[in-house]
């Protein structure tokens, strides 16, 4: 099924890096829905858990993501550098007065990042790296695996009976070596999710 490629409710994305000399990578988020992006009431299985279950269907599926989980159907990461890029972390940060504490943050675990892009020819799961561009290539893109939702669970609300539109950012942290120098870089894109009471 063809996916609709969106920067959720926004028309642009922001690229941040430590200096102008650093190489940059771009981030897009795709989703097939623009409405209810928070799953209510039940726990969920992460991509890594689904991978483990597929390897051993006789085992019990581990529902390791808490309820009230923010989800997106897919992610593309595009890298324009001539060095291999390691994905260090992927995080979501939301703010809203109805969120308990006014803010919700979560990060995908290392195993989840490995599982999310496993199978993409441009990505090495064991080191979580995107290969560099070669020849006349302008960029290298990795695409998250079909059937793997990007999940972050545990968001709670002061008033759980109130429908709430939450806004925030999805952040991807990367690093690469330029000769013997370790260089870190970050890409951010605005994201929006809708909480619908049970």
The ordered H/E elements are: EEEEHEEEEHEEEEEE
**Which structural category fits the helices and strands?**
mainly beta
Number of helices: 2
| Total strand segments | 14
**Averaging pLDDT over every residue, what do you get?**
79
End-to-end C-alpha gap: 29 Å
Low-confidence stretches: 1-22, 32-36
Q: Which bin fits the share of residues in helices?
A: under 10%
Number of domains: 1
Share in β-strands: 35-45%
Which geometry do the CA atoms define?
globular
Task: Report what the structure shows.
- This protein has 198 residues and is mainly beta.
- The chain has one domain (5-195).
- Helices cover 9% and strands 41% of the residues.
- The protein has two helices and 14 strands.
- The protein has helices spanning 47-55, 110-117; strands at residues 5-6, 14-17, 25-30, 38-39, 69-72, 74-79, 85-95, 103-107, 123-124, 129-130, 140-143, 150-152, 164-178, 181-195.
- Strands 2, 7, 8, 9, 10, 13 and 14 form a seven-stranded antiparallel sheet that branches. A four-stranded antiparallel sheet has the order 1-3-6-11, with no helix packed on it. Strands 4-5-12 form a three-stranded antiparallel sheet, with no helix packed on it.
- Helix 1 (47-55) packs across helix 2 (110-117).
- The relative contact order is 0.27.
- Mean pLDDT is 79; it is low at 1-22 and 32-36.
């Amino acid at each position: 099924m063809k996916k609709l490629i969106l920067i959720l409710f926004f028309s642009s994305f922001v690229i941040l890096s430590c200096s102008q000399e650093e190489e940059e990578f771009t981030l897009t988020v795709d989703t097939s829905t623009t409405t209810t992006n928070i799953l209510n009431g039940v726990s969920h299985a992460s991509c890594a858990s689904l991978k483990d279950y597929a390897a051993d269907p006789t085992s019990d599926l581990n529902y390791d993501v808490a309820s009230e989980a923010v989800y997106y159907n897919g992610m593309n990461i595009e890298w324009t550098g001539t060095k291999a890029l390691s994905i260090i972390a992927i995080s979501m940060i939301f703010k809203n007065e109805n969120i308990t504490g006014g803010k919700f943050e979560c990060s995908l675990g290392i195993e989840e990042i490995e599982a999310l892009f496993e199978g993409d020819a441009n990505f090495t799961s064991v080191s979580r790296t995107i290969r560099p561009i070669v020849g006349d290539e302008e960029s290298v893109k990795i695409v998250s695996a079909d059937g793997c939702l990007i999940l972050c669970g545990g968001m709670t609300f002061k008033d759980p009976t109130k429908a709430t539109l939450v806004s925030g950012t999805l952040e991807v942290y990367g690093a690469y070596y330029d000769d013997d120098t370790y260089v870190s870089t970050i890409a951010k894109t605005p994201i929006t999710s809708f909480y619908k009471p049970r």
